[in-house]
Write a structure and sequence with these properties.
By secondary structure, the chain is α/β, with parallel strands linked by helices. The protein has 2 domains: about 200 residues, Isopropylmalate Dehydrogenase; about 160 residues, Isopropylmalate Dehydrogenase. It contains 13 helices and 12 strands. The protein has a 10-stranded mixed β-sheet, sandwiched between helices. β8, α7 and β9 form a beta-alpha-beta unit.
Length: about 350
């Protein structure tokens, strides 16, 4: 049995997570994988029911899971809460040791017209952001006074080394290029970051390394995105740059992500927010959640099933099934249903004997 914890969360989170879960249930049934699913409260929904964004029962379930599927968290409804929903997310990442956030973004062939960039600039863009997830400003000591505030940004050699190794190892599976992003002309943490990344690079002679200041990287992402392969960043820079990168494909709603540690459960979630303004209206794009489900399958060692799900998702988009964020009128549930219809067909073909597959 493979135990998957589902954290629907807030806003459109329950809607998109439901579509991704149905895809995983279909794959489990068709291939006899024995997935089991449990839903737990998390984020704002958990604040409403339990008073805290990360209840002990939710943390315990995630700690013993094989994988975690997250919808989205947050919203203005909880702006005045003692702990905002996002604090629960930071605590969960820390508790599970999820230090590496992988955010792939690429222009799907045939969908260049949906990019805000010119087609000749966007075509062929395929970037993997590797973001350090448990250090930096988000986790540093904070002070907030009436007329003064501060956030401490701290990184250690060990934190930088381990995320750098992740980036270089992924680059070996891609185009053998790493671009490390920092602000080493100003920040002490960035000076250490650049030095340690350069040292780690010596263990990967087959991977080319270059360094960019974060402001230059932001510019190149929209003027020459194809220059990048793997983009290695600290926490804050990675958060900002991956959101910038997401829109070159046409919508932030298309992209999934994986948060991984040294072992145990990974957490998989679309990179978009909770979008409370469209929650409950069947208007959300579940593509990012479904893409995250494919990354979950990869994490479980089910790469062939992950490719089938990715194929079904991309074919759905190429056929013209578009949600409102892409200028279409297809609802969240209808989009997910079409993905599963295609998925069921390709799954049947994949399970067929070789002589039958050859005739398909």
């Amino acid at each position: 049995m493979t135990r998957i914890i589902v954290l629907p969360g807030d806003g459109i989170g329950p809607e998109v997570a439901a579509e991704a879960r149905l895809c995983l249930e279909l794959i489990s049934e068709r291939f006899g994988l024995g997935f089991t699913f449990e839903e737990h409260d998390f984020g704002g929904a958990a604040i409403d029911r339990h008073g805290v964004p990360l209840p002990e029962a939710t943390l315990a379930a995630c700690t013993s899971a094989d994988a975690i599927l997250l919808g989205a968290v947050g919203g203005p409804r909880w702006d005045d809460a003692k702990e905002r929903p996002e604090i629960g997310l930071l605590k969960l990442r820390k508790a599970l040791g999820l230090f590496a956030n992988l955010r792939p973004a690429r222009i799907m062939p045939g969908l260049e017209e949906y990019s805000p960039l010119r087609a000749d600039i966007a075509a062929g863009a395929d970037v993997l952001v590797v973001r350090e997830l448990t250090g930096g400003l988000y986790f540093g000591d904070k002070t907030l006074e009436q007329d003064r505030a501060s956030d401490l940004c701290t990184y250690t050699r060990e934190e930088i080394e381990r995320i750098a190794h992740v980036a270089f190892q992924w680059a070996r599976q891609r185009k053998h290029r790493v671009t490390s992003v920092d602000k080493a002309n100003v920040l002490a943490t960035s000076k250490l970051w650049r030095r340690v990344v350069s040292e780690v690079a010596q263990d990967y002679g087959d991977v080319a390394l270059d360094h960019l200041y974060v402001d230059a990287a932001a510019m190149h992402l929209v003027t020459a995105p194809t220059r990048f392969d793997v983009l290695l960043t600290e926490n804050l820079f990675g958060d900002i740059l991956s959101d910038e990168l997401s829109v070159i494909g046409g919508s932030i709603g298309l992209l999934g992500s994986a948060s991984l540690g040294t072992g145990g459960a990974g957490m998989f979630e679309p990179i978009h927010g909770s979008a409370p303004d469209i929650a409950g209206k069947d208007a959300a794009n579940p593509a990012g959640a479904i893409a995250s489900a494919a990354m979950l399958l990869d994490h479980l060692g089910l790469s062939s099933q992950a490719r089938l799900l990715e194929h079904a998702l991309e074919q759905t988009l190429r056929e013209g099934h578009r949600t409102a964020d892409l200028g279409g009128a297809v609802g969240c549930a209808a989009f997910g249903a079409r993905v599963r219809e295609i998925l069921d067909g390709v799954a049947a073909a994949a399970r067929a004997p070789a002589h039958v597959q050859a005739s398909l």
